[in-house]
């Protein structure tokens, strides 16, 4: 039986590709959705771009149908009747209706008008499914016997997210062989590229080893030269594995996912400082530096937690400074803990060293607003709070990478401030799921808070 998928506005604001994602079924847009797209189309953000893309697609289908009808010497069918789309199905617009419903739905509420249109369609005997990211609308749909669904095409269940490593317990004998030979064959393991394996000897957690994937069914020792970055060493196995990826120039895209205080941003920035040649002790052997990055570019989405404080005066850099304060905090800490691991710059001295990074053009802050269209070569890019980005926004950022550029995405999917995203639909988790099979990609899930005992207690108990 052909299905009718009634699409809510928030789906098209998330991705216009929903209009051709249901194969040979019918995609139905209530007139209210068209009106809401018109309200969003003038916005300069991702919502506005998606609204305009959806409108252009609809208009393109209309023009194709009219051209086809002229060539065939017949009257064109309308969007209300349903015209063919590019996926093999049909697309139609549902007109407004004053149909009575089992539950009173106020007509001045746009969501209710969308639901009324779906009920009207279902009463014609059609199999109707309402696709929406709005939880309340899904609840109301169930109350009027309309099947609700979330948009699932780019969802990645957060609880099932690829962690970037796996643990093998009871591997005491294997650990001995691994230390002796520097490599170990593990048939049937089927590892992802750049995945790690933590070997532990049963309950004896003191005997353990970390190996990195070598092919699908083998591991090799991690690189001892990648244990420390700008005076920072990993405190946990996950942080040690993260540094291996961050300091490996062959891995050009790294994602770090973890809760508050797990060290995501600090590790990314420390590796960035190491990579832009601030640490002259990184010279090994013949004196060549292992990296060739000209600067570190740091950015993050400008999305407030809670009520927005409104307009910020000043230049772009002054505006960005407010949003980038977590970056400044981490850089200041790194300036206090030098490459040798000892305290060498405190308070104002550390702040002065941070300012020198920007004055010398070694570190740059960039607003995501201005990144579209750029081609960024030989830079180490850190995108903090990436869980607040849509999959399309992350794609836009990664596709800006030129030759010799490395990109690090950090974030916590459990702390999302973007009202149109959740833990399973954001660009960070989407990237992990779609890129994990590539040799140029690495990912680590950071599980243990290392910021302070208080931070760890808050993450655990609150």
Structure description:
- The chain is an alpha/beta fold and 462 residues long.
- The protein folds into 3 domains: 3-149, 5'-nuclease (Rossmann fold, 3-Layer(aba) Sandwich); 154-222, Archaeosine Trna-guanine Transglycosylase, Chain: A, domain 4 (Roll); 229-461, Rossmann fold.
- It is built from 14 helices and 19 strands.
- The protein has helices spanning 9-14, 31-40, 46-71, 110-122, 135-143, 172-181, 237-246, 264-275, 316-323, 325-336, 348-359, 391-398, 427-435, 453-461; strands at 3-7, 26-30, 83-84, 90-94, 127-131, 147-149, 165-168, 183-185, 196-201, 204-213, 218-221, 228-229, 232-233, 253-258, 295-299, 363-365, 379-383, 406-411, 441-446.
- The strands form 4 sheets. It has a 6-stranded mixed sheet with strand order 3-4-2-1-5-6, sandwiched between helices. A 6-stranded parallel sheet has the order 16-15-17-18-14-19, with helices on both faces. A 5-stranded mixed sheet has the order 7-9-10-11-8, with helices on both faces.
- Strand 12 (228-229) and strand 13 (232-233) form a beta hairpin.
- The longest helix has 26 residues, at 46-71.
């Amino acid at each position: 039986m052909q299905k009718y998928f009634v699409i809510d506005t928030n789906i098209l604001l998330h991705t216009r590709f929903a209009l051709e994602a249901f194969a040979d079924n019918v995609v139905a847009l209530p007139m209210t959705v068209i009106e809401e797209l018109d309200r969003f189309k003038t916005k300069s953000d991702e919502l506005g771009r998606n609204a305009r893309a959806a409108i252009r697609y609809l208009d393109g289908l209309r023009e194709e149908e009219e051209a086809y009808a002229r060539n065939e010497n017949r009257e064109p069918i309308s969007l209300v009747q349903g015209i063919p789309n590019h996926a093999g199905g049909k697309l139609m617009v549902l007109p407004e209706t004053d149909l009575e419903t089992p539950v009173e739905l106020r007509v001045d509420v746009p969501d209710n008008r969308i639901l009324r249109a779906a009920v009207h369609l279902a009463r014609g005997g059609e199999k109707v499914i309402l696709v929406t990211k709005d939880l309340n609308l899904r609840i109301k749909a169930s109350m009027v016997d309309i099947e609700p669904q979330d948009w699932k095409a780019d969802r990645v269940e957060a609880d099932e997210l690829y962690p970037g490593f796996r643990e093998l317990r009871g591997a005491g004998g294997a650990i001995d062989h691994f230390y002796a030979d520097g490599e170990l064959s593990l048939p049937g393991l089927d590892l992802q590229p750049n995945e790690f394996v933590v070997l532990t000897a049963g309950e004896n957690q003191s005997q353990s080893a970390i190996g990195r994937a070598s092919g699908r069914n083998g591991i090799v020792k991690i690189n001892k030269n990648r244990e420390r970055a700008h005076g920072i060493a990993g405190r946990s196995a996950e942080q040690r594995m993260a540094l291996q990826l961050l300091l490996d120039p062959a891995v050009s895209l790294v994602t770090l996912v973890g809760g508050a205080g797990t060290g995501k941003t600090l590790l990314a920035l420390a590796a960035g400082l190491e990579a832009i040649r601030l640490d002259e002790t990184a010279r090994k052997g013949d004196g060549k530096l292992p990296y060739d990055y000209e600067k570190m570019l740091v950015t993050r989405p400008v999305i407030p937690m809670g009520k927005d404080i409104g307009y910020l005066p000043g230049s772009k850099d002054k505006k960005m400074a407010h949003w980038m304060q977590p970056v400044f905090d981490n850089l200041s800490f790194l300036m206090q803990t030098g490459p040798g691991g000892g305290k060498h710059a405190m308070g104002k001295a550390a702040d002065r060293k941070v300012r020198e990074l920007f004055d010398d053009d070694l570190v740059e802050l960039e607003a995501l607003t201005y990144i579209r269209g750029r081609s960024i070569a030989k830079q180490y890019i850190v995108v903090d709070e990436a869980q607040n980005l849509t999959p399309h926004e992350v794609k836009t950022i990664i596709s800006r990478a030129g030759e010799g550029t490395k990109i690090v995405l950090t974030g916590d999917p459990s702390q999302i401030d973007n009202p149109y995203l959740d833990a399973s639909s954001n660009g960070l988790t989407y990237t992990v799921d779609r890129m994990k099979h590539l040799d140029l990609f690495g990912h680590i899930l950071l599980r243990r808070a290392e910021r302070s005992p208080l931070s760890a207690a808050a993450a655990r108990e609150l």
